[in-house]
Amino acid sequence: MPAVDRTLSDLLRGHLQAWDKGNRGTRGRILVKFLEHFDRCTEPELEREFANGASLFLARVGAWLRLNADSQSDLVLPLRVLSVFVGASSGKRFLREVIEVVGIHTVVELLTSKLVDEDSKEWAAVIITQISSAGRPYREAVCKHGGPEAVRLWLRSSGEQGQDTAQSGAAANTIGNDAAAAGRGNLNQIGDKAARCLLSLARNNPYYSNQIREALMAMLTGGHSTSQMTASRVIRLILQPDPADGSVPWQPDAQLVQSSRDLLLSAEVNVQHEGSEMIRSMILHSSAWVDVSLVLRDWLRPMRIEPPMDETGVRQAFESTPTEWLLQAATAKLILVRLTPSLDTCLGVSMTCGCLCMYLVVVHPT
User: Fold this and answer.
1) Which one of 13, 25, 172, 306 is separated from 49 by 20 to 30 angstroms, measured CA to CA?
2) What is the pLDDT of residues 242-268, one digit of tens each?
């Protein structure tokens, strides 16, 4: 552990007068020094350095955060300090104190607040992940206060802001392109933190599984590309058993497969890839193959079965749209992924590929 500044230690451990009498700038400097010295401390180390008075400092930081949650103040520093206490809570004492002083609902509401900046929202998501990772009762408490829906709304808002930044950057020259690239990197970072948060809420949480499922499906069908890719990654992980906690994986169904249709039809290659990987993970579940195959069969069919007739009564040639082609081609590949391992001979594989290719050629000869 690094050497501790005795002035800082005496200040925080003994009296805390500087915090009580100081203004916003003084409190900000105290928080910065705390993070410099105690960023990776454990609970016993914090208690030793604070002479068993760490809870007094935690109560002050938590109360300050709660009072400024509805303002346009920078909340990154107090959130980072609370994250240190929650992460160091080996006995969960600090975790319970954070929940009592700040409240889970306060941290969840930060994600959807229009007054809070993106950096503060990211640290709020980190704290929610830490709380939900502490056990099933804490996961249920976060879901009770609308945690999954708040994460979904946060991703949608961040995606819309990132899209506006990219469009404004495209209108500019090199500087605008650099800003757009930085915006995409920030969106990827937000997506990773949101994915870890949703995954921690979904694991071993059967009571609120429907709430989490609805939030993820809404992200697949009506969200920004960042929301869609985040939901796809989370669903792929939930479909797999987790040996760490022994949680039961989700069982895919037709509704879940149908929700991934927008990913395959996306104009972004990364989103298409995530959609294919998610459906690939679902079709490999033998128990759900029947339900999944029915949806894939409908996707493989053309949307208009009979071509329209012209004024003379002659039926016109059927023309599929490029959207149909994209969906049918992706569906054919996914069906082959499921059928190929189950066939014992190369002849069966060739016949399956031939039938699918013949069908696609008949539907759209181009």
Assistant:
1) 25
2) 666 656 677 777 778 888 888 888 878
